């Protein structure tokens, strides 16, 4: 892999601090202004690597690497950097609270449709993107505080940490409730327009519609039955009993209209309780304020489904479990979200690979949604969900390679790995990106003239993440190499899109550097930069794992090792160890390398073979010297 994630993460850290930290204060906002999503993305550009990539840890001051300190030098030294991050995070969590209720509005990310002006009511509506990014940021913050607190002895600082953890926990609970109330199950008859489109998408064998409907319901019968267990939030349905009923599930853009409130069983948070005196009473659990009425269309949106699926996965990650980041209430909410996560992955993976024939529906792009919209962007989004399902089920290399081929085709179609031409439709995938009309955003706003619109422009960064994800799952060395080469080419594209010649240089995104006739920007997009950072984090974690083992290489390594060990034993039998000190030193080094080679032959057969080759050369040298001496006159 040519990406070199460590170096680029350090450069991004340095650029983020240079852009955001001025005159001893953190300045919020980027290209799209300041809102609950953009500001979280800005902060995560620092916290994601710091909490998910071991060498980038900042929560143990005495163990912080010099390279990390140099990249974040404007924030101070190894002790003041984490303190400043704590105070910046505290500022974020207090900034987006209104009357004790966390705010999850899209704000300046909402765009008007057809040039109409959005009202303040529309701009303050909660959106799934904010729920999702808040889950990721809150978990990162709580984990950071948990570890950093072990190095803090001053009671004043410990109170600051306790306050930040409480704020992050409250926002986490509220975000999980929001995700529960945004889940949607869209049911329709096979004869309706959405049903006809879905059947057209999955029926690659040309079977009668009734047969496909029966197969569809049969394959997903457990999923259909599970909807009876979706007890809190939204997503309940009683319309799936009909033999002709089809459905789709996932997340709408916001809280679904008529979604019931989620009952909370307030309990002690179970987190560290501190006081200046012993025996202090338990602190009250977080209150998230009133749950607002939903207005979003009761129908899943692919983009918001992918965003929610990614965030929910963080709730049951190894880090979350090991550090115990969830309190009892959050664990209950997490189980409810995991059920929806499982149902969603099963549904979309089934639809994308339906029939098991020579061509999957996913392999026939562009993907068409049930409302008739087509785009390569939708194909990439469906691919993202299928990858998650394959991770969960440890899919075979054959299935993973087929997904990899789809990603390669998408990279070409989007002109990521191919030169673009004037008027290329693929350029629109990057700028302005996928246009998502938020149906229902007019609700309760009689003066509005249009729905709000959401633009999604993360195509290349999402493509990078999925390439790395599949590469990490493949056990076939050659197939993994193909995906990593594709990831390198996608990174080459992304690296060329960094800002230059401004105080925000080396941040993203400047698509005009690659695609003609696009506007140029002077300020960074934290939306895009955070997603590139997430891709680099994935690459860094992949490179932290042991390399794949090729069975053929293991056999060859042991064959070489057997020969080398036998020749070494022959040298000892000939009394070479009783020869000069120089020969004895060589034999001692040979023995050490043979022991090392045997120890790593199964996990690093290439390195073992290299060691054995050196041993064989040295032994052959001893044999050659002996032969010369025996033939000398």
Automatic annotation (TrEMBL):
Region of interest (Disordered), ranges: 267-294
InterPro entries, per database record: SCO2524-like
Highest taxon of the lineage: Bacteria
Protein name stated in the entry: Uncharacterized protein
């Amino acid at each position: 892999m040519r990406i070199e994630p460590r170096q680029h993460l350090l450069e991004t850290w340095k650029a983020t601090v240079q852009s955001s930290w001025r005159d001893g204060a953190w300045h919020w906002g980027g290209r799209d202004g300041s809102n609950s999503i953009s500001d979280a993305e800005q902060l995560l550009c620092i916290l994601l690597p710091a909490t998910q990539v071991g060498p980038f840890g900042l929560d143990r001051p005495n163990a912080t690497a010099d390279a990390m300190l140099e990249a974040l030098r404007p924030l101070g030294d190894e002790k003041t950097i984490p303190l400043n991050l704590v105070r910046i995070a505290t500022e974020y969590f207090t900034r987006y609270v209104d009357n004790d209720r966390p705010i999850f509005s899209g704000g300046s990310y909402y765009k008007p449709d057809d040039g109409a002006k959005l009202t303040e009511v529309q701009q303050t509506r909660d959106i799934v993107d904010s729920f999702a990014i808040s889950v990721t940021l809150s978990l990162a913050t709580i984990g950071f505080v948990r570890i950093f607190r072990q190095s803090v002895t001053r009671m004043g600082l410990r109170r600051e940490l306790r306050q930040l953890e409480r704020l992050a926990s409250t926002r986490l609970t509220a975000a999980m409730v929001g995700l529960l109330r945004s889940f949607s199950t869209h049911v329709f008859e096979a004869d309706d327009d959405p049903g006809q489109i879905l059947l057209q998408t999955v029926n690659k064998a040309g079977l009668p519609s009734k047969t496909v409907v029966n197969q569809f319901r049969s394959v997903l019968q457990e999923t259909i039955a599970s909807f009876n267990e979706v007890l809190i939030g939204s997503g309940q349905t009683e319309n799936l009993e009909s033999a002709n009923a089809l459905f789709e599930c996932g997340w709408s853009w916001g809280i679904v209209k008529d979604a019931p409130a989620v009952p909370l069983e307030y309990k002690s948070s179970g987190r560290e309780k501190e006081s200046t005196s012993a025996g202090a009473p338990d602190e009250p659990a977080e209150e998230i304020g009133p749950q607002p009425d939903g207005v979003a269309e009761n129908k899943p949106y692919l983009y918001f489904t992918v965003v929610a699926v990614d965030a929910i996965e963080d709730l049951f990650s190894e880090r979350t479990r090991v550090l115990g980041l969830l309190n009892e209430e959050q664990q209950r909410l997490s189980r409810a979200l995991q059920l929806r996560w499982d149902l969603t992955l099963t549904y979309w993976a089934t639809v994308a690979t339906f029939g098991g024939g020579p061509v999957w529906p996913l392999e026939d792009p562009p993907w068409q949604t049930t409302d008739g919209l087509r785009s390569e962007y939708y194909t990439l989004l469906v691919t993202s969900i299928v990858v998650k399902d394959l991770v969960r089920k440890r899919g075979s290399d054959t299935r993973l390679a087929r997904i990899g081929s789809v990603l390669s085709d998408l990279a070409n179609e989007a002109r990521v790995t191919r030169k673009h031409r004037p008027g290329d439709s693929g350029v629109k995938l990057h700028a302005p990106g996928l246009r998502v009309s938020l149906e229902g955003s007019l609700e309760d706003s009689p003066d509005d003239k249009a729905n709000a619109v959401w633009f999604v422009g993360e195509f290349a960064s999402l493509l990078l993440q999925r390439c790395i994800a599949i590469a990490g799952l493949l056990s076939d060395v050659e197939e993994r190499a193909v995906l990593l080469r594709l990831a390198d080419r996608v990174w080459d594209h992304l690296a060329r899109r960094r800002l230059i010649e401004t105080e925000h240089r080396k941040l993203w995104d400047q698509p005009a550097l690659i695609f003609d006739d696009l506007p140029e920007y002077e300020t960074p997009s934290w939306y895009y930069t955070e997603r590139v950072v997430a891709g680099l984090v994935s690459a860094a974690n992949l490179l932290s794992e042991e390399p794949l083992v090729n069975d053929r290489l293991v056999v060859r390594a042991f064959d070489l090792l057997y020969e080398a060990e036998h020749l070494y034993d022959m040298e000892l039998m000939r009394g070479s160890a009783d020869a000069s000190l120089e020969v004895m030193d060589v034999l001692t080094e040979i023995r050490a390398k043979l022991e090392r080679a045997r120890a790593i032959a199964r996990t690093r057969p290439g390195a073992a073979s290299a060691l054995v080759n050196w041993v064989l050369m040295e032994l052959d040298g001893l044999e050659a010297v002996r032969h010369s001496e025996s033939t000398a006159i």
